[in-house]
Amino acid sequence: MSTFASKDLLAPTPAALKFNAEEVESIVKKNLQAVIGQNPYEHEKTPQWARSIIEGCLDRLVKLSKPFKYIVNCTIAQKNGGGLYNASSCYWDNTKDDTCTVNWENKTMHVIVTVFAAGI
After folding, report:
1. Is the pLDDT of residue 93 over 80?
2. What Pfam families has UniProt attached to this entry (predicted)?
3. Any idea which of 60-69, 83-92, 105-114 has the lowest mean pLDDT?
4. In what helix (H) or strand (E) does residue 113 lie, and over which residues does it extend?
5. Under a CB-based contact definition with an 8 Å cutoff, are residues 110 and 103 in contact?
């Protein structure tokens, strides 16, 4: 008889199930580069860019298989000398939920992507 305790060796570790802001930031930045890259700002394209950024981020986040519901917000603004301020707030459980905001820019635009992760 074996003394080896039966254990699910494929079960993820608790650390692997936690929100990792660096991992999320990397996903968002790669997606921004793929969708917009160095393209110049074109107002007519911003709805499609925002949709592609959000959908691409959500697709990659869900594939992480972590116990979260995700909300992704994307703001795209032309660099024209005007100011830009973006704020978000949530009421949640600080022990289970988290957020990551990525500021990204190229020569003609600023993009702010915020990912909210609500633990389930």
Report:
1. yes
2. Tctex-1
3. 83-92
4. strand 109-119
5. yes
Task: For residues 38 and 20, give the distance between their C-alpha atoms in angstroms, rounded to a whole number.
Answer: 27
Whole-model pTM? 0.87
pLDDT tens digits for 62-85?
A: 999 999 999 999 999 999 998 888
Strand order in the sheet with 109-119: 68-78, 109-119, 98-105
Give the alpha-carbon dihedral of 39, 44, 50, 51, to 10 degrees: -120
Helices (H), ranges, 4-45: 21-35
Beta bridge partners of 109: 78
- Residue 102, phi then psi, degrees to nearest 5: -120, 125
Residue type, 109: M
Residue 70 burial (CB count, 10 A): 16
Question: Can you list the positions of beta strands (E) in 33-97?
Answer: 68-78
Q: Which residue has the tokens 């609500």?
A: 118
Are 117 and 98 a contacting pair, CB within 8 Å?
A: yes
Domain boundaries, the chain: 19-119
